[in-house]
Design brief:
Blueprint: E1 6-13, E2 16-23, H1 36-42, E3 45-47, E4 52-57, E5 60-64, H2 69-94, E6 102-107, E7 113-117, H3 159-175, E8 189-193, E9 199-203, H4 206-210, H5 222-228, H6 237-244
Length: 245
Amino acid sequence: MRVNKKAIIKFSIGKYQDEIFCDVVPMQACHLLLGRPWQFDVDAQHRGRTNKYSFVVKGKKYILNPLTPYQVSEDYRVMRELREKYQREEKRKSEKETLLVISGEGTSQDGSKKYLLAKPTLFSEEMPDGLPPLRGIEHQIDFVPGSQIPNKPAYRSNPEETKELQRQVDELLKKGLVKESLSPCAVPVILVPKKDGTWKMCIDCRAVNKITVKYRHPILTLDDMLDELCGSNVFSNIDLRSGYH
């Protein structure tokens, strides 16, 4: 990545305050990345087990503790809101005029004319390309120790189904939702016709489910979930879609 801009940044972590000369690059990891130059300047010592950094500045010792998963999630939320606010301001500056589309004309009960506005398309029917950004907690599927990895043969299919299956796989690869794998684990897929005439790809994961370690987490109480919706009475499609995906 080419660096074409630098800046002196003042920052504070708890009671520790400092300023450093930074490269300005786009990144999704955090606001500020303290790299090797900063570690060299303050002679920071890293403890691998606790993931803490300790150093002495002007005779005062500082210990930087890692963030909790909740703090990481909250920090990402604030950073996302700032980025969206900046994008809205840039878009507002670039827009020189606003067009109002009139789709029809009618008459109200009192005899005056009223106009019907065309309903805009607020949200795309297609999901955005690529996977979501990395969060504070990443999950993985663990197999039962010593279990045999399933390698099932593919189901028989006619040429039409094979062509449709390849088209859907190519589309998922192009969007970045799946990637090629060299894993010995293989499970079959089957195409199921939908009501609108299209095909839905279903994956037979029963063999994988049998050897998957079952994790149990407490379910959130209904009262706590309803409290989060306090004061909200209007919901849009984006709420339902983002909540589902």
